[in-house]
Design a protein that fits this description.
The structure holds two protein chains of two kinds.
Chain A: H1 16-21, E1 36-42, E2 48-54, H2 56-60, E3 64-68, H3 70-73, E4 77-78, H4 85-88, E5 91-92, E6 98-99, E7 105-111, H5 114-123, E8 125-130, H6 137-140, E9 156-164, H7 167-173, E10 176-183, E11 196-201, E12 207-211, H8 216-227, E13 234-237, H9 253-265, E14 269-272, H10 275-281, E15 288-296, E16 302-314, H11 325-331, E17 341-350, H12 364-382, H13 386-393, H14 412-423, H15 425-428, E18 437-448, E19 463-470, E20 474-479, H16 488-500, E21 507-510, H17 528-555, E22 562-565, E23 568-571, E24 574-580, H18 581-591, E25 597-603, H19 609-618, E26 626-638, E27 645-655, H20 662-682, E28 687-688, E29 691-692, H21 697-700, E30 710-715, H22 736-750, H23 761-774
Parallel strand pairs in A: 1-14, 12-13, 16-17, 20-21, 27-30
Antiparallel strand pairs in A: 1-7, 2-6, 2-8, 3-7, 4-5, 9-17, 10-15, 11-12, 11-14, 15-16, 18-26, 19-20, 19-25, 22-23, 23-24, 26-27, 28-29
Helix pairs in contact in A: 12-22, 16-17, 17-18, 20-22
Chain B: E1 3-10, E2 13-20, H1 25-32, E3 51-54, E4 57-60, H2 66-69, E5 73-75, H3 88-95, H4 105-118, H5 124-131, H6 142-152
Parallel strand pairs in B: 1-5
Antiparallel strand pairs in B: 1-2, 3-4, 3-5
The chains are: A alpha+beta, B alpha+beta.
C-alpha cells in the first residue's frame, strides 16, 4: 500500500475541541436580538377535513406576535427533487383542507416566550370532520380504498417495476424454488439534537434560515420555491448538527413557518421540536414487507429471484426522500449476489401515519434482514453451509449485473470468509444449540457515492470544492458537504492536506453556508467522502499545479519533477532543491500580481444523466460510481425460558476501500452496529390507529452500553481507483448485516426462524412453543 | 407565576437572579447564564444530555426545579478546562474518538466526571453504569467507555 502522510492515520475530529468544551454552537444555541419562539399546532386526528380554523383568540393573547395558517404559507408543496416537483411533491407547509396523520401541521404561532406560544396553540380552534383512516398498507393498496392524496391511485405514491432475464423460466430450470415473506417495523432516528430552525426575514426581502439539516443546498432550493422567492434571496446556514441519520434531509414545515413568522413579525423566530414531536412528526424508517421467491440449482447457484416490496410510506414524503424508497429497496436486493434473472416490483404506499423517509442505509437494513434470513433458509433446504452458499453466489470485482449495476472493486467475498473465521464459524455453527448459543451471518452491498439527481442545473448531483491558499502558509477548503457528526469536515480536510502535501494543521475548512460554499447536492447516500472528498482532492490538485508552476522556475526544474510533502515542495530525487509551502504560495502570488491562489474541484458520477433521471422508475442503470460491502457475523445466547437474546460477539468485515481515518471509520461501524442492534432487537415505534404509543426515550428504549457486545472489525484489502486515495464509504452500510446476522444466529441457537422485526423475546417464545407442538 | 431570588454558584462564580419558580436548572443555565454547552434533548430526564454536577453529584438539570438549586454549587461543561488546559476526560474523549455529533458529549463527560471524582479507578461495569443514563446515538458507546478508562488511568 502507498505510504501517506495524513490519510490512513487515526485523526481526531477537527471540531472535537469545541465539542468537548461545550463551545460548539448548534442551532438552538443561537440567540438573536428580539428573537421570538415559534410553535406548531398539530392535528390530533389521523385523517380529517379541516372545516374552519379560528385563530382570533390566540392572536389576542398578550405576547403573541403572529399566528399563521395555510393562508400565509400557501399552496406550494415541499419536496426534494426538483425533477419530480410536478408529479409527486405532496405536502404543503401547513395543511389546507385536510390533515393526514396525527401530528400534521395546521397552524403556527410566534410569541415572546415558549409558555405564551404554547398557551396560544390551545386558543386556536380547528373544526374537523373526521374521515375514515388507513393504517395498513395492505388495506390502503386495495382497489377502491379511499384516497389519502387525490391523484394517487391505490394510494401508491411511487413504484418500481424491473425485469431482467426470464425469471419464470429460471424457476422452471431450478432444483428448488423457495418463497418467504418478511416484515419490518418503524425505527425512529433519535438524533440527540432535536430538529431546530431559526428564520430571519431581512428588510430587503432576503431570508436567512439557520437549521439543523443535512442538505443546505436542497433546503435552499425547496424553501425558495415554497416561499415564492428566487434562490438568490435565500441563504441557508447550518450550525453544528447533532446527528442526522437521514432524518434531517428534507425541508420541514417548521423551516417554512419560522421564515413566514419572521416575515410577519419583523423579528427572528426560532422553532425547536420537543422530543415527542421528534418521535411523532419528523421521519421514521420505512416498514417494508418483503415477499421473496428464489430459484436455485442443485449445486447452489441462484438462477432467479422474484421480489415484491410493499413499503409503508406514511402520510407524505414521496416528493421528499420517500420518493426513492422503492428504487433503493430493489437495488439492495440485487447488488450483492449474482442473479441473472430478476423480477422486482416495489411500491410505496400512503397511510395515515407518521412520515417515513431516509434512515441510515436507506432500506438496506430492512431488505437485507429479509435477504439474509432467506439465504439461510435456502442453504438449509440444500443442506449446504450458509457461508459456502453465499460464497458461491457473491458478486466479484468487475461484475456487471443483469440490471445494469457495475461493480468496480468488491471485497465482499473476502469479508464473508474473514468474518466467518473471526466468529469461529467452523467450530461453532450448528454445534452449540444445546447451550442456546448460535452464530449467524449477514451482509450485503450498499451505495458509495449515491448519484441522486435533485437539481435541474449543471450542478446536477455534483459536489464541488474550492481551496484558497494563503500567503501565510495555510489553506482554506470551501466545501458544500455537511458535517452532521460523521466527521466529513475532518476527512475532507485530511484529503486536501494529503494532496497539497501539507500537515493537517495547515488546513482549515468552511462548510454549511449556501452563500459562501460551492454547491453540494446533499449529505446522504454514502456520498460525502466519495463525492465531496474527490472534489476537495481535485481542488487541491488544481491549487498545487499553480504552485508547481511558480516553483519550477525558481528551482530550475520541470513541473512534472516536483513533489509536495511535509509542507515542502521539492525536486524528486534532489530533496535539497526545495521551497516551503508558504514561500511557494508567496511566489505564485508574486507571479500573478497578487491574484489569490484558488483551486477548483468537482466530482460527478459518470452514468448518463438521462439514465439517472429515470432510474427511480425504471430501476435500470448504474446508480453509483462504486459500491461498498459489509459482512457481519454475530454470536448470540438465547434464554429459552425468557426468550431474551444477548449478542455476545460481533465481527464486521468491511469493504470501504482505503480507510482514510481509522478512528472515525471505527466510530461509524460501531455506531452503525448499535443502531442496527436497536433495529434488530430492541427499538420499535409502536402505533395504534396512527397514534404512536411510545414517543419517549424511556418507552422507546435505545440499547445502552450494557447491550454492546465485544466487537472486531476486519477491513478488506480493497483500493477503489475512482475514490479519493482509494476510499469508498462507511457511514451507512454498517447497519445492513446486523439484523440478518442476529436473526440467523438465533435460528442457529434455538432453531426458530423469526420473519419479522424486531426479534423480541415474545416472538421467540411463541416460535419455540410452536416448534414444541410440532414435535 | 411568582418570582424569587436565587443565588447559585456556577463554575466558581455566584450568580444572583430573579426567576420564575417553575424554571428548571437547565433553563437557568442555558437561558439566564447563556451557558449553552449544556444541551436539552428530551426535557424529561431520559437522555442525560443536560447532565451537570450539583454539589458533587451528576443530575439531569432539566428535572431540577430552580429553587432546589438555590445556594448550591454547579459545574457545567464550560467549567471543566482550566484556561486552555483540558480536563483529562476531555483529552481522552478527543484522542479516543469518543464523540461524533457532540450533542451528548457535554452530558456524557459530566456523568463520567462525577464518576471519576467519587471513584477514581472504576471497573468497566461501573463506567457503563455511570453513563447508562446518557444516550449516545452515534458512537455505540464502546469508544466512550474506553475514553473514560483512559482518563482514569492516564498514560505515565
Amino acid at each position: 500500500m502507498k505510504e501517506y502522510s495524513v490519510v490512513g492515520k487515526s485523526t481526531p475530529k477537527v471540531d472535537a475541541l469545541d465539542k468537548v468544551t461545550g463551545k460548539a454552537v448548534y442551532t438552538d444555541d443561537l440567540r438573536m436580538p428580539g428573537m421570538l419562539t415559534g410553535k406548531l399546532l398539530r392535528s390530533h386526528l389521523p385523517h380529517a377535513k379541516i372545516l374552519n380554523i379560528d385563530t382570533s383568540k390566540a392572536e389576542r393573547l398578550a405576547g403573541v406576535k403572529a399566528v399563521i395558517t395555510s393562508k400565509d404559507t400557501g399552496a406550494r408543496k415541499m419536496g426534494f427533487t426538483v425533477a419530480t416537483r410536478d408529479f409527486n411533491w405532496d405536502q404543503t407547509a401547513l395543511c389546507i383542507d385536510k390533515v393526514r396523520y396525527i401530528g400534521d401541521e395546521v397552524a403556527a404561532v410566534a410569541a415572546i416566550d415558549e409558555e405564551t406560544a404554547l398557551e396560544a396553540l390551545d386558543l386556536i380552534k380547528v373544526d374537523y370532520e373526521e374521515l375514515p383512516a388507513l393504517f395498513d398498507p395492505l388495506e390502503a393498496i386495495k382497489p377502491g380504498a379511499l384516497l389519502i392524496h387525490e391523484g394517487f391511485a391505490n394510494n401508491i405514491s411511487n413504484e418500481v417495476l424491473l425485469e431482467a432475464g426470464d425469471v419464470e423460466q429460471a424457476f422452471k430450470d431450478s432444483y428448488k424454488v423457495i418463497e418467504e415473506r418478511f416484515e419490518t417495523h418503524h425505527q425512529a432516528h433519535c438524533s440527540m439534537e432535536p430538529h431546530t430552525s431559526l428564520g430571519n426575514w431581512h428588510s430587503d426581502g432576503r431570508v436567512t434560515l439557520w437549521s439543523s439539516n443535512q442538505d443546505p443546498f436542497q433546503i435552499r432550493s425547496t424553501l425558495a420555491y415554497v416561499l415564492g422567492l428566487t434562490e438568490d434571496k435565500v441563504r441557508v446556514i447550518v450550525p453544528a448538527v447533532g446527528g442526522g441519520f437521514g432524518g434531517k434531509a428534507e425541508v420541514f414545515p417548521m423551516d417554512v413557518c419560522c421564515c413566514i413568522l419572521s416575515k410577519k413579525t419583523g423579528r427572528p423566530v426560532k422553532i425547536v421540536l420537543s422530543r415527542k414531536e421528534e418521535f411523532e412528526t419528523t421521519r421514521v424508517s420505512h416498514p417494508i414487507i418483503v415477499e421473496i421467491k428464489t430459484g436455485v440449482s442443485r449445486d447452489g447457484i441462484i438462477l432467479g429471484k422474484k421480489i415484491r416490496n410493499i413499503i409503508d410510506g406514511g402520510a407524505y414524503g414521496a416528493g421528499g426522500a420517500g420518493g426513492i424508497a422503492p428504487f433503493l429497496s430493489s437495488l439492495h436486493l440485487r447488488l450483492d449476489y449474482k442473479t441473472p434473472n430478476v423480477s422486482i416490483n416495489a411500491v410505496r404506499v400512503y397511510t395515515n401515519k407518521t412520515i417515513a423517509g431516509a434512515r441510515r442505509g436507506y432500506t438496506a437494513p430492512q431488505v437485507h434482514f429479509a435477504q439474509d434470513a432467506h439465504l439461510d433458509t435456502i442453504a438449509g433446504e440444500l443442506g449446504m453451509d450458509p457461508v459456502e452458499f453465499r460464497l458461491k453466489n457473491v458478486v466479484t470485482p468487475g461484475y456487471t449485473s443483469s440490471t445494469g449495476i457495475e461493480i468496480t472493486t468488491c471485497g465482499f467475498p473476502e469479508a464473508i470468509e474473514k468474518t466467518a473465521e473471526c466468529i469461529g464459524w467452523k467450530e461453532k455453527y450448528g454445534k452449540l444449540r444445546k447451550d442456546g448459543i448460535g452464530v449467524g451471518m449477514g451482509g450485503g452491498g450498499g451505495v458509495s457515492g449515491s448519484a441522486y439527481a435533485p437539481d435541474m442545473t449543471p450542478m446536477n448531483y455534483t459536489s464541488a470544492a474550492m481551496i484558497k491558499l494563503h500567503k501565510e502558509g495555510f489553506a482554506t477548503v470551501y466545501s458544500g458537504a455537511q458535517d452532521i457528526g460523521q466527521g466529513s469536515s475532518t476527512v475532507i480536510s485530511m484529503i486536501a492536506a494529503e494532496e497539497l502535501g501539507v500537515s493537517l494543521d495547515k488546513v482549515r475548512i468552511v462548510t454549511s453556508d449556501t452563500d459562501l460554499c460551492p454547491y453540494d447536492s446533499f449529505t446522504a447516500g454514502q456520498r460525502v467522502t466519495f463525492h465531496a472528498g474527490n472534489a476537495a482532492k481535485h481542488a487541491a490538485t488544481d491549487a498545487k499545479k499553480q504552485l508547481f508552476k511558480a516553483v519550477a522556475d525558481r528551482l530550475e526544474a520541470r513541473e512534472e519533477d516536483l513533489e509536495a510533502k511535509d509542507n515542502q515542495i521539492f525536486v524528486k530525487g534532489s530533496p535539497e532543491k526545495k521551497m516551503s509551502f508558504r514561500e511557494a504560495i508567496f511566489a505564485c502570488q508574486e507571479d500573478n500580481k497578487g491574484r489569490e491562489v484558488v483551486g477548483h474541484g468537482v466530482f460527478r458520477h459518470e452514468e448518463m444523466p438521462e439514465v439517472l433521471a429515470e432510474i427511480y422508475r425504471t430501476g435500470y442503470g448504474n446508480y453509483c460510481p462504486a459500491y461498498v460491502f459489509s459482512a457481519g457475523t454475530a454470536e448470540v445466547k438465547v434464554d429459552r425460558e425468557t426468550g431474551q437474546v444477548e449478542v455476545t460477539k460481533f465481527c464486521f468485515g468491511q469493504d470501504s476501500g482505503t480507510v482514510l481515518n481509522p478512528i472515525a471509520v471505527r466510530g461509524q461501524l460501531e455506531g452503525g452496529f448499535h443502531m442496527g442492534l436497536g433495529f434488530a432487537v430492541y427499538e420499535h415505534l409502536k402505533m395504534t390507529n396512527g397514534k404512536i404509543q411510545n414517543p419517549t426515550f424511556l418507552d422507546y428504549w435505545i440499547p445502552t452500553p450494557f447491550e454492546m457486545p465485544q466487537m472486531t472489525t476486519i477491513y478488506t484489502d480493497t483500493y477503489e481507483p475512482i475514490g479519493p486515495f482509494g476510499a469508498k464509504a462507511c457511514g451507512e452500510g454498517a447497519l445492513a448485516p446486523v439484523a440478518g446476522a442476529i436473526g440467523n444466529a438465533i435460528y442457529d441457537a434455538v432453531g426458530v426462524r423469526i420473519r419479522s422485526l424486531p426479534l423480541t423475546p415474545e416472538k421467540i417464545l411463541n416460535a419455540l412453543e410452536e416448534k414444541e407442538k410440532k414435535i | 407565576m411568582e418570582k424569587k431570588i436565587v443565588k447559585i454558584k456556577v463554575n466558581g462564580d455566584w450568580h444572583e437572579a430573579l426567576v420564575k419558580q417553575n424554571m428548571t436548572l437547565l433553563e437557568f443555565i442555558r437561558e439566564e447564564l447563556n451557558l449553552t454547552g449544556t444541551k436539552e434533548a428530551c426535557d424529561e430526564g431520559e437522555c442525560g444530555a443536560c447532565t451537570l454536577i450539583m454539589d458533587g453529584r451528576s443530575v439531569n438539570s432539566c428535572l431540577v426545579p430552580i429553587m432546589e438549586a438555590n445556594g448550591k454549587e454547579i459545574t457545567t461543561i464550560e467549567g471543566l478546562a482550566k484556561g486552555q488546559d483540558l480536563h483529562p476526560l476531555q483529552k481522552a474523549f478527543i484522542e479516543n474518538g469518543a464523540l461524533q455529533c457532540g450533542f451528548c458529549t457535554p452530558g456524557m463527560i459530566m456523568s463520567s466526571k462525577a464518576l471519576l471524582d467519587n471513584n477514581p479507578k472504576p471497573t468497566e461495569a461501573e463506567i457503563k453504569g455511570a453513563i447508562a443514563g446518557n444516550i449516545c446515538r452515534c458512537t455505540g458507546y464502546n469508544m466512550i467507555v474506553e475514553a473514560v478508562k483512559m482518563a482514569a488511568e492516564p498514560k505515565s
